[in-house]
Amino acid sequence: MKLIYQQMLSFLALIIVALTVVSLLFIQTTASSAWDNNFRQLAGFTNSIEQHAVLNDGTVNAPFLDNSQQILASQQISFGIYNAKNQMGYPQQKQQGIDKKSWRKLKTGEDVSYRGWVEVPSRNGKAELKQASIYYRPVFYSGKLVYVIGAFAPVKTIQASLAKTQRNVFIGFVISAIAALILSYFLAQVQVRKINRLRNATHEVAQGNYDVDLKSSGNDEIGELTTDFGEMTDALKAGREEIKRQEDRRRQFMADAAHEMRTPLTTINGLLEGLAYDAIPEDMRAKSIELMRNETGRLIRLVNENLDYEKIRSNQIILHRTTFNGSEDLHNIVSQLTQKSTDAGDVIKLDTPDDLSVYADHDRFVQVIFNIVQNAIQFTQNGTITITARRGYHQSEFSVSDTGIGMTADQVKNIWERYYKADPSRKNTKYGESGLGMAIVHQLMQVHGGKIDVESKQDVGTTFRLSFPDEDAAPSKQDVAKRQAKSESDHASDKA
CA-CA distance, 203 to 225, in Å (whole number)? Predict the structure, then answer.
């Protein structure tokens, strides 16, 4: 059975039950009220007769009773008076007395009222057996039962009135049931329409369409379900986009890795073939072997840097952060790179206090600064590289500026990408040939909870600014993971 019919039957059943209960209670109350009014009316008649029609000596005022009979005849009400021997005293006619059960109650002074078959006095002098409502009132003088006044009203009048009431209630019940059926249909339509919207949206999602926009309608359970469904589709859409982004990254990684490895492998293969077929002169063999060793080392560095990058990106590395004097490491880095800068015609200037407190993983800190300074040397010829360090507010701050070739806005945007090279012509140089240095630097700064910014202008130079937070200001691992996820999401959006 379809849901709309189930809903209709549910609504209709509830309304029918309610109407039935109300109708029965109304009929019962109306009938009870009608009979109570009837008995009160008969009690009033007997009370009036007691006061005006019976004399103190027990005799009756016949003219008053005859006039009263004529008046009440139009209402089909009659009455009679029974003496202490349970014999009819008025009107004078043969009639059975009051039943024994009722007579016993009357003798105790209790009024008796009920519905039943009884011989009702009539004007023609002959009693008639009728179904009537009966009321008896006993009258006592000096503690003795003198007579009993009985009033009789046929039940057919009240029954006719009650039958009319029941008929009207039944008509109202039928009309209400029809209206309830129509109302149930529309109420069921409203509920089913909401569910059908969810059903159609679910079908769209099952077909792979996550661009389903469902607006919550109301604060009921279906409205809350609609809201939850919308959140689910948003999560599925984000998951699909993340999967697509990761797949694109995987493909790009495979392409970039293959491209980066092809050159050294081709070089090594060519030299090996030359050696195998004695195509390389004897005096060149040592140089060829040295070249193969260099290319093999390049491949090893490329693999290690890829592994290092993935560990850092997936937050699998463990940082051993301590507080140390960063000025000493800056001097050591300058000493190590002095020869490279001299070969490039560059001058390195260092501006740092003697004691500079830094809270970081010492080896990773050195790796970050070394890579940035080496990158500056790589893209600067006959220029100046300036390293500046100072204490900031709850952090240590560094900047590395060069007067090299600089970068365009697009190059700055992509500088943190793996295998990206601002100057592709330098891809095979001995300074950072893999294109992974800046990507690793960026990831290391994120896991430290630090910041790194770059400003560059083409043919003018580039400046990197870094900050390492102190121990009391360092973010938690959860905050670092959230920051990494947001950074990757923002970067993916920028590329898109």
Answer: 16
Number of H helices and E strands in the chain, helices first, is 11, 12
Nearest Cα neighbor of 75 from 128, 151, 182, 1 is 151
Residue 238: half-sphere exposure toward Cβ, Cα within 13 Å: 10
Nearest to 88 by CA among 126, 43, 38, 140: 126
- Report the C-alpha gap between 50 and 148 in whole angstroms: 9
Contact between residue 363 and residue 395 where contact means Cβ atoms under 8 Å apart: no
Single pTM value for the model: 0.46
Map out the domains of the chain with their CATH numbers. 3-161 (3.30.450.20), 210-314 (1.10.287.130), 316-495 (3.30.565.10)
Q: What is the mean pLDDT of each run of 10 residues along the chain (496 residues)?
A: 67 81 87 87 85 65 74 76 83 76 90 82 65 88 85 84 86 85 78 78 79 70 76 81 76 68 81 84 85 81 69 70 93 91 93 94 89 91 95 94 90 74 48 63 87 92 94 72 57 51
**Residue whose token pair is 């919550």:** 216
Distance CA 270, CA 275 (A): 9
